[in-house]
Amino acid sequence: MVWQRFLLIPIFLALAACTTPPRPAMVPLGSSGDFGYSARDLGPDRIEVSYRGDAVAVSPYRPREDGRAKAELDLAHDLALWRAAQIALDRGKAGLKIEFENRDSDVVVQQRTYYRADPFYDPFFDPYDDPFWPTTCRYCGPGPMYHFDRVRTATARAVVRLTVTLSQSFDPTADGMVSAAETLARLKAARSSAVY
């Protein structure tokens, strides 16, 4: 029985090596996976910040209405705004305003068909001689009869793009303007534990 324990050790080590630790979501695009933020300047005080989330499994029948897809859109929006607030503070700006916002989910739905031989196949069974068998049999013919299973899967990837105007000072009376420091503190507290 001791030798069986030694056989299990490599299996457990192989399974442990296959699991990847969670990676923080607030990273530059492509630094630790196929997700992250990117930014570009549109003018002296205008920037475009994008965040691309990781692919998450969603319902294959109504993927855009799935709660996980909506939660990913909210997360991507918050992380893009977090990056915009970081850029504003790095440039000495106190306020920021979202001028344009685009939210989208890239959805991929796949259907796979798996064929397997019928375990009760009888090579001498003639379905046309059996009165209880349907007259049209799509699996009849020479060779074994097959069953097939169709499996549908879907993934959704959130993509958010924000066009942001940076302001030297924060004016709480200005329509749509938010404080860069307060926004950064709020989003760090809410989203710093986000991982993929």
Oligomer: single chain
H-E order: HEEEHEEEH
Strand residue content: 25-35%
- Uncertain spans, ≥5 residues at pLDDT below 50? none
- Tally of extended strands? 6
**Average predicted confidence as pLDDT:** 84
Q: Radius of gyration, Cα only, in angstroms? A: 27 Å
Largest sheet: 6 strands, antiparallel
Helix content: 25-40%
Number of helices: 3
Shape: elongated
- Structural class call reads alpha+beta
C-alpha termini separation: 40 Å
Task: Give structural notes.
The protein has a domain at 18-112 and 156-191. It has helices at 2-18, 67-90, 180-191; strands at 36-41, 46-52, 56-58, 95-117, 146-167, 177-179. Helices cover 27% and strands 33% of the residues. It has 3 helices and 6 strands, in the order αβββαβββα. α2 (67-90) packs across α3 (180-191). The radius of gyration is 27 Å and the shape is elongated. With 196 residues, it is α+β, with helices and mostly antiparallel strands. The two termini are 40 Å apart. Strands 1, 2, 3, 4, 5 and 6 form a 6-stranded antiparallel sheet that branches.
